[in-house]
Design brief:
five-stranded mixed sheet; alpha+beta; 157 residues
Length: 157
């Protein structure tokens, strides 16, 4: 078991001292105080813990820290730039695509990754691409509408 001493998180090099076998989620929340990434099921089934690793949606509760050393990690806290919400964040607000909000960070990160790979998805592609993201409040129609709206605004960054 090795130690990880630095991570690239939200565009900044962050110094840490963590066992490589710890989960990325635990380090983000407990060591770096980035609590926007949520602990849901701890088994990769709900996707509340989704972050981007080199632009790919990744379930941080299943990801060992050692596998992301040297990679770009983006959390929900890192999406807004220069005080302006990311287009997907804005679309979720405009579509009222949240209720309790617990799943929202993971949903948004999944949607950002989806739109990077499929810039103008059909509703069926949105449903397929967001498969595995669970919302206990059932706001799925509004989530689909938000992703569709973000796509129309060119949300690829």
């Amino acid at each position: 078991m090795g130690r990880i001493t630095e991570l690239d998180v939200n565009g900044s090099r962050r110094r840490i001292d963590a066992d490589a076998d710890r989960t990325l989620l635990s380090v983000l929340r407990d060591d770096l105080d980035l609590t926007g990434t949520k602990y849901g099921c701890g088994e990769g089934q709900c996707a509340a813990c989704t972050v981007l690793v080199d632009g790919q949606a990744t379930k941080s509760c299943l990801t060992k820290l050692g596998t992301v050393a040297g990679k770009r990690i983006t959390t929900i806290e890192g999406l807004a730039q220069n005080g302006k919400l990311h287009p997907v964040q804005d679309a979720f607000l405009q579509a009222d695509a949240l209720q309790c909000g617990y799943c929202t960070p993971g949903m948004i990160m999944g949607a950002v990754s989806l739109l990077r790979h499929i810039p103008n998805p059909t509703d069926a592609e949105i449903v397929s691409g967001m498969n595995g993201h669970l919302c206990r409040c059932g706001t799925y129609p509004r989530i689909i509408a938000a992703i569709r709206a973000a796509a129309k605004k060119g949300a690829r960054a």
